[in-house]
Amino acid sequence: MSNRLNVKPNDLSAFWMPFTANRQFKQAPRMLVAAKDMHYTADDGRRILDGTAGLWCVNAGHCRPRITEAIQKQVAELDYAPAFQMGHPIVFEFANRLVDMAPAGLEHVFFTNSGSESVETALKIALAYHRARGDGARFRLIGRERGYHGVNFGGISVGGIVANRKMFGTLLTGVDHLPHTHLPGRNAFTRGEPEHGAELADELERIVALHDASTVAAVIVEPVAGSTGVLIPPKGYLKRLREICDKHGILLIFDEVITGFGRLGAPFAADYFDVVPDIMTTAKGVTNGVIPMGAVLVKKEIHDAFMNGPEHLIEFFHGYTYSGNPIASAAGLATLETYKEEGLLTRGAELAPYWEEALHSLKDAPHVIDIRNIGLVGAIELEPIAGQPTRRAFSAFLKAFEKGVLIRTTGDIIALSPPLIVEKSHIDMIVDCLKGVLDEIE
Ligand code: PXG
């Protein structure tokens, strides 16, 4: 148990917290000091049930011995090795294991340190690929409204979350956006994939016609949009995007930072929806969230297009000091072993019906205007308080924490994504807690 229990920091002002209401937090801090399996421990000793796998990343649950031990062993043996012009065996092994489990055709891995960096890397690979083939007029990138692709400039440019974009100037040029797929009027309270909206993929044809296909490099989407509040693709939507991209020679990038590593009950969303992208971005669950790491998986043809010219020359001018660092690679290998040994990459499929039933039991609770679910992801959308958007869901978040459950909220949407080791009894606790929360909040 942590020796930090009951030790209070004496000043909270220096740390500028990310994506946080800093002033509110610092008046009434919510501190986590330890974690094990499905639970956190708060600094007052309370056990908090983790309804969000940290931030959608701790898929195997917390402080899993195999992962902890692998990190401890690696840090004592080879702590760091340069990633440029040098290698170490474990990163090659990890890349092989990732390729083994990835959808067929994705045969090469570029390592990063986060989802945001994976996105930047994927966009740069897409642009450079076309140029390497002598098709450098393809410079446009198409994202989607309400998309979240991290917080770096490429990611916020193709992303579609207004608050994440509006403060930051002109962003990347040559970007356009598909419409989002949220159709509450037609799809509210759908279980799993919505019936309506596949035709929204055809908007890609309109965008391509506007700019001419010869200028479009890639389309990037989250197969299931997570951060914006869990928008599940309408039936057939992703297949149509794939067809349109193929027709016009446009690369399709799936941002699987959230959906990767079992979240939907299949290893990747690409498996779940049976649509293979040309490039797939991952992070979070790749190391169970324990050590920062991202991995971009790439089709062989794309990788091979770079492998020409004199052999002493660098083929792709991109990389990070910590790309594939030994400790992250060791954590990643141990994570994949844990997933495999415990069947976690498909466990979500077994639990999904129970999860769905439990979530939808909240249909008649106060303030609820929509419930959505897929795999082990869920969202409960609340009617906003008039004139005060986000306030109701934030109250729900605070109240749930008081009651011992960690949830996430975005706008007025509660998003849920428990570790994949979740038991039915935990699901019941999450839903019972939310019932109480919704009854009590304004
Ligand atoms: N792409 C997607 C699809 C994501 O969900 C990123 C990229 C960026 O990853 P990094 O590692 O740079 O943060 C993400 C991250 C939430 C939440 O509660 C979601 C994310 C991060 C933090 C919170 O919705 N997604």
From TrEMBL:
Cofactor(s) the record lists: pyridoxal 5'-phosphate
ATP-binding as UniProt keyword: no
Record PROSITE patterns: AA_TRANSFER_CLASS_3 (PS00600)
A GO molecular function held by the record: transaminase activity
Pfam families to which the protein is assigned, alphabetical: Aminotran_3
CDD domains xrefs: OAT_like (cd00610)
SUPFAM superfamilies in alphabetical order: PLP-dependent transferases
Highest taxon of source: Bacteria
Keyword vocabulary terms for this entry: Aminotransferase, Pyridoxal phosphate, Transferase
Family, as annotated: Belongs to the class-III pyridoxal-phosphate-dependent aminotransferase family.
Name of this chain's protein: Aspartate aminotransferase family protein
Natural source organism: Chelativorans intermedius
